[in-house]
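In response to reviewer comment 3 from the previous cycle, which asked for concrete evidence that the modeling workflow produces usable outputs, we include below a single protein chain processed end to end. The sequence was submitted unchanged, and the resulting structure tokens are shown without manual editing.
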Amino acid sequence: MEDIKSKLGQGGLLLAAMGIISMLLSIFNYNIRLLAWIDIWGNGMGWIIRILLIVIGGALFYIYGRDTEEIEN
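The workflow returned the following structure tokens.
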């Protein structure tokens, strides 16, 4: 079970990082190939999706990314 929680934490960190990188690259009209679908619905919705990636990824990392030793102390 701890392995699944660890993977969820790592996945959350990856989601947040991809959201931040996508946000920075979109300023220069570039995007991560994996996230090219974000701007299909328009620029405003693309920004909302990027922000949601960061928030959801950060929440997953905050909840599941910490070791059990850190939580107990």
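Residues 2-27 form the longest helix (26 residues). We consider this sufficient to address the reviewer's concern, and the full set will be provided in the supplementary archive.
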